[in-house]
Amino acid sequence: MLRNSLLLFLLIISFVFTSCDPNRVFDVYQPIPNKWHKDSVVTFNIKVPDSTNAYNLFINLRNTNVYKYNNIFLIVEMVFPHGKTVKDTLEYKMADPSGKLLGIGLTDIKENKLWYKEQVVFKEKGEYVVNIQQAMRENGKVNGVVELEGITDVGFRIEKPIKK
C-alpha cells in the first residue's frame, strides 16, 4: 500500500514537472521488475518529429538505496531506420566518494539524468530504436552482475537544446 501511494505521488509530481517542460520531445520510462537481469534489454521506439533540428539525448535512471555500486556501465545501441547501428559502452557515476547516491529525489528513490549524445540530427526519416542493457561487473570478477538490484526504471529522453 505504501509503495502504491509513493508511486502515485511520484507519477503526479513527474506529470507536473514534465507538463511544464517546453524542451521535452520524447521522455519515456520502462519499469524494471525486481532486478535488472544482464540479458534484459530495455527498448524504446522513437519517431523523431523532424530531420533538420539538433537534439540532446539522455538516459534516465531511477534507483533506490538498494543500489550498491558507485557507478553503472550500460550498453546503449541506437538502430537507425535504414538498419545502421551505433553501439556504445558507457559508464556513469551513481554515488559520490563517500557512497552517497547521486540524483534528484526526496525519498529513497533517486532520479539520474545522464548525458548520452549532444546535438544529434536525426537525418533518416522513420522509426529509431534505442536498446539499453546493464553491463555491470564487480572488481576482480570476469563474469558480469547477473541480476542488478536497485534500478527501478530506465528512461530515454530527447530534448531541444536550450537556446542561449
Largest sheet: 4 strands, antiparallel
Portion of residues within helices: 10-25%
From the alpha-carbon coordinates, what is the Rg to the nearest angstrom? 16 Å
Domains (count): 1
What structural class do the secondary elements suggest? mainly beta
Strand neighbour order, sheet with most strands: 1-10-4-7
Average of the residue pLDDT scores: 89
- State the CATH architecture: Sandwich
- Please tally the β strands and state the result: 10
In short:
With 164 residues, the chain is mainly beta. The protein has one helix and ten strands.
Fill in the keyword field for this structure.
four-stranded antiparallel β-sheet, Motility-assoc_lipoprot_GldH, Jelly Rolls, 11% helix, lipoprotein, signal, Gliding motility lipoprotein GldH, 164 residues
Describe this entry's structure for a reader.
The chain has one helix at 2-19, and strands at residues 24-31, 36-37, 42-47, 54-63, 71-79, 85-93, 110-121, 127-134, 147-148, 151-159. It is mainly beta and 164 residues long. It has a single domain, classed as Sandwich (Jelly Rolls), CATH 2.60.120. It comes from Mariniflexile soesokkakense.
Secondary-structure map:
Elements: H1 2-19, E1 24-31, E2 36-37, E3 42-47, E4 54-63, E5 71-79, E6 85-93, E7 110-121, E8 127-134, E9 147-148, E10 151-159
Antiparallel strand pairs: 1-10, 2-9, 3-8, 4-7, 4-10, 5-6, 5-8
Protein name: Gliding motility lipoprotein GldH
Keywords: Lipoprotein, Signal
Organism: Mariniflexile soesokkakense
